[in-house]
Design brief:
The chain is α+β, with helices and mostly antiparallel strands and about 400 residues long. About 50% of the residues lie in helices and about 15% in strands. The strands form 3 sheets. A 4-stranded antiparallel sheet has the order 2-3-7-6, covered by helices on one side. It has a 3-stranded mixed sheet with strand order 1-4-5, covered by helices on one side. A hairpin with a 2-residue loop joins strand 4 and strand 5. Helix 3 packs across helix 6, helix 7 packs antiparallel against helix 8 and helix 8 runs antiparallel to helix 9. It is globular and about 80 Å long. Bound molecules: flavin-adenine dinucleotide. The site of flavin-adenine dinucleotide has 21 residues, from strand 1, strand 3 and helix 10. Flavin-adenine dinucleotide (FAD) binds next to strand 1, strand 3 and helix 10.
């Protein structure tokens, strides 16, 4: 049968959600969809209206913390201790929706949940869990995670920050760099070398000899606090040392949790850019037709949809593996690498397709693009994740 010609410029495609072409949402449970919807509402109502100004002012919108806490988004995967006890896919969806707003807001939740509450939950004493976790879930205590040092974050085994025993206490000396939440944190989970190996120390704000100055002049993650941490003979009681882990596997296991969330989160940033771009190219008239009616523009949009869809499917399977208890660090490395690269490329291309308007904060693309330059770097650079996969494939360590 001959196909009926369509009016010029119209397509026959059945309605599909351009941001979810493979209906990943249809593969979610009812609870997962409810969580996604409630975070989406928070982002629409509270994050999007204020994020541009916060980014321009280089200010973390701390006033959002009680609302993030009220929805159960802080330590959402932890069972007990006033935490929501949600599954890994829910945590991923939380990250995705928050990062649709801004990577800085997702970073806050990632650090609080995966890098601070998780190690206390996994490696802390019962007294430490009771002292910190409920208050952190309520957003009354903010945490930060100190692993990276000024001389090189990719090689954390070469740690210079150290702790020595003095009587019943420990004395901590050294410096950490690029620490999210540092200047606003009430509690720092600090990894330091000891005669037994790397251990985790819980350093409370105001401890004599401890300073956390904010790093200024960032062009990325401007709606997030990033700090240095300095320890000058800081006394930490034995009761504030994490008893359950010794060695690099402590901080690395936290990074696996956080990288998992990032793999989901960046999808939200890419979706925000594509959504904005679809609206822009539909209305921008050039050469007598909408920009969206050019082959080259459609190829670029299709390329974005292809890569976002692949990232969504990868993230969902990653979540199902995590919930099944079969997740390996190499799975997370591949997803962190693939999805961050995808999101950064999408954001850069969206910025370009906006033309001159693409350099304006009126549009979200440049903010997401600048944020994603950090997200592709932190929690293991792209190269570090590629080398992790290479090691998995070959059995040879090329670091
Ligand atoms: C905004 C922001 C927030 C952050 N928040 C935190 C936080 O909360 N806590 C924390 O502990 N850290 C945090 N970080 C630090 C982050 O994890 C590090 O920046 C990252 O791990 C890279 O370390 P580095 O900056 O020292 O770079 P380097 O390790 O010096 O790497 C420099 C370059 O060398 C490459 N490279 C390294 N090793 C190899 C190799 N073997 N072969 C080839 N190339 C290699 C890297 O890929 C990179 O391109 C944050 C960083 C940023 C930017």
């Amino acid at each position: 049968m001959a196909a009926t010609p369509l009016p010029a410029g119209k397509s026959s495609a059945a309605a599909l959600d351009p941001l979810d072409l493979y209906d990943v949402r249809g593969m979610l449970t009812e609870e997962e969809r409810l969580v996604q919807d409630s975070v989406a509402r928070l982002v629409d109502a509270e994050v999007l209206p204020r994020i541009r100004e916060a980014f321009e002012q280089h200010r973390f919108p701390k006033e959002l913390v009680p609302q993030l806490a009220a929805l159960g988004l802080l330590g959402s995967s932890i069972q007990g201790y006033d935490c929501a006890g949600l599954n890994a896919v829910c945590y991923g969806l939380i990250c995705q929706e928050l990062e649709r707003g801004d990577s800085g807001i997702r970073s806050f939740v990632s650090v609080q949940s995966s890098l601070c509450m998780y190690p206390i939950y996994a490696f802390g004493s019962e007294e430490q869990k009771r002292r910190y976790l409920p208050a952190m879930a309520r957003g009354e205590l903010i945490g930060c995670f100190g692993l990276t040092e000024p001389h090189g974050g990719s090689d954390p085994a070469n740690m210079k920050t150290h702790a020595k025993k003095r009587g019943g206490d420990w004395v901590l000396n050294g410096a950490k760099m690029w620490i999210t939440n540092g200047a606003i944190a009430d509690l720092a989970v600090v990894w330091a070398m000891t005669p037994e190996g790397i251990r985790g120390f819980l350093v409370e704000k105001g401890s004599p000899g401890f300073a956390a100055p904010e790093i200024q002049h960032k062009f990325s993650l401007r709606a997030s606090v990033t700090s240095a941490l300095y320890f000058d003979n800081v006394t930490v009681p034995e009761a504030r040392v994490l008893p359950g882990v010794v060695g690099l596997k402590g901080p690395l296991s936290c990074l696996t949790q956080a990288r998992y969330g990032i793999s989901w989160g960046v999808i939200g940033a890419a979706q925000a850019c594509l959504s904005e771009q679809l609206a822009y190219t539909a209305t921008r008239q050039l050469f007598g037709r909408p920009l969206a009616q050019n082959q080259m523009i459609q190829v670029r949009l299709a390329e974005m949809a292809r890569r976002i869809t692949s990232a969504q499917l990868l993230a969902l399977q990653l979540g199902r593996l995590k919930d099944a208890g079969t997740l390996q660090p190499a799975h997370v490395s591949l997803a962190k690498w693939n999805n961050c690269r995808m999101a950064l490329d999408v954001a850069r291309d969206c910025r370009d397709m906006l033309g001159g308007a693409g350099i304006s904060a009126e549009f979200a693309a440049i903010r997401h693009m600048l944020n994603l330059e950090s997200v592709i770097t932190y929690e293991g650079t792209e190269t570090i994740h590629q080398l992790t996969i290479g090691r998995q494939l070959t059995g040879l360590n090329a670091f």
